[in-house]
Amino acid sequence: MSSAQRIGIFGGSFNPIHLGHVGVAERAAADYGLSKVLVVPAHVSPFKTVGPAPLDDDLRWKLVQIACEGHPLLEPCDIELRRGGVSYTIDTVREIKALHPDAELFFIVGEDSVAGLPHWRSADELAKLCRFVSFPRTPESSTEIRRRMEAGESIEGLVDPRVAAELAVRRAAGSDGRGSRPRRP
User: Fold this and answer.
1) Residue 159: partners with Cβ closer than 8 Å, 6 or more residues away
2) Is 0.85 topped by the overall pTM?
3) Least confident interval from 8-22, 81-95, 164-178
4) Residue 171 counted as domain residue
5) How far apart are CA 96 and CA 79, in angstroms?
6) What domain count does the chain have?
7) CA 27, CA 32: separation in Å to the nearest integer?
8) Whole-angstrom Cα distance, residue 133 to residue 108?
9) How far is the CA of 36 from the CAs of 17, 27, 95, 103, 153, in angstroms?
10) How far is residue 136 from each of residues 24, 67, 111, 118, measured CA to CA in Å?
11) Which end of the chain, N or C, is less surrounded by CB atoms within 10 Å?
12) Residue 59: domain span
């Protein structure tokens, strides 16, 4: 049996992170025998450069940390937030591979993303560096969660109660946590 680590990489806007995200990450860890799953919030998704600004990086990072607490195989990873700019998967995978050269990498995507993978930046190199594993999208939706928050509706059952509490604290303080969206270079 190989002693190499099997590391999952689960990237996304996490705007905000919800129970579906956590469930997919845990399922990937179980299904593929992963040592850990890095939960990587994007600074700017190459697929979401227009539209409403996401929650700011500091808040999304804090929410990812909160959501991963109590899930020993989930590890928050701020690699894309620290790097800044548009968050291309190839850059993240290269950096993680450099940090863990002997690890087998698994990149977790939604089933709806699979058809577009050949069009991702440096797709051929990505396919050599990591294995893509897909999962169905969950019924939870960050867009719906933000809509409910803006309407003053409950988000109970959609996000970890501690995530909901942090969002409520921000709202009560008069900050919805929205930042300005950097534009694509």
Assistant:
1) 16, 17, 18, 19, 67, 140, 145, 167
2) yes
3) 164-178
4) no
5) 9
6) 1
7) 8
8) 5
9) 18, 11, 16, 11, 34
10) 9, 20, 5, 19
11) N
12) 6-139
